[in-house]
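Bench notes, afternoon.
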Amino acid sequence: MPEIPTHELALYHLNEAGLPVKSTCPFPFVAADYSRYKYGATAVADRFASALGDAFQHAFPHLIFAPSLLIASSPYKYVPTAAHALACLFLRHVNLERDRRHLPPACLIKIARYHLSAGDYGTLPIEQRRLLMRSNTLSLDPAALEGAHLVMIDDIKVSGAHQERLREATETQPLASRTFLHIASFFIHPSAVLDPTIEDRLNHAFVKTLDDLMGIIQASDFVWNVRLCKFLLSARNRAELPAFLERLPDRFLLDLCERSCGDSYDLMATYRESHLLVQAALQQRQVQVPGNSAPRGGDRVPGKKSSTA
């Protein structure tokens, strides 16, 4: 099979301190804004998506107006990643441009992920990231990919482990091209050593505690993602979780409970105790708690063929 043409673009290149050294974006990189985006602030995601759309159109005009264009975020199981919101907003920007050319809209596809792990990926050393990514089974629909140009969107490239795994998963797919887009990637001197936990510091530049989340989740543009779920259910926040939940409406607690079941965090020792606290808070309010019938991510759609890698 011939090699698939592959492209890559990032809005910002960061140094080992997480500071921008190069940018194709009209606004500066602000770590606090990036942190808010990672925890569900759609307004920030929309700014990044618009800038990514403009940069993509400028760098790859032949791709944005290709006959068949597909957009995917970083893989997920049931609860989407923050990059999923970014991909959806990027898709809207791209389709406005395609509509002006009377072209059919680009489509959003899901790259399914079947293995989830406890803990925070942003705190892992590089080799553990690579091992974790290699253990992941990813699934795509080859029929949908036939002759298409696939754009895969993620927040940040640190070790490149995510991208390496996606390259492997798409290597044998019938694609016309594949493009990796990031908000930021690290660009360091060959002699420098990158501490991968810089990603964790960027993720938490604004959101450090449960209280820091309140303004984000109460905003009208808030959207759920997997990082938020794991942060809420993490052991580090367990002591403060009951008081935090008291300040939130029933719907939020139900959504958290459903998503915890969807990605099976309720079955993981790391999160099980916090999941039970959410259930207890709902029972105290006499709100019916989802049982074993809650959706479990990764279930295949009957009759839907997919390719796993």
